[in-house]
Design brief:
Length: 77
């Protein structure tokens, strides 16, 4: 029972941390994309991944959001 309670408390504190990371990733994408020289195809892919990440974040699916946003950032490297 104690382990279950500890896991629940850990999850409660971890979820806001994931939620706060998504907007920062979106901001990084916006800043890098504004100065990047990428092909039209790559730009479209990056914008689609950013949109997917933003929608997932709004829906509370932060794991999917982070995955999409990190993939977009990788394309900007």
């Amino acid at each position: 029972m104690k382990k279950l309670l500890a896991a629940a408390i850990l999850l409660a504190f971890a979820s806001p941390a994931f939620a706060n990371q998504c907007p920062g990733l979106m901001k990084q994408i916006d800043e890098k994309l504004a100065m990047a020289t990428v092909s039209d195809a790559d730009k479209a892919k990056i914008e689609e991944l950013r949109k997917t990440g933003e929608e997932a974040h709004a829906a509370g699916d932060h794991a999917t959001s982070e995955a999409a946003l990190n993939e977009a950032l990788a394309l900007l490297q």
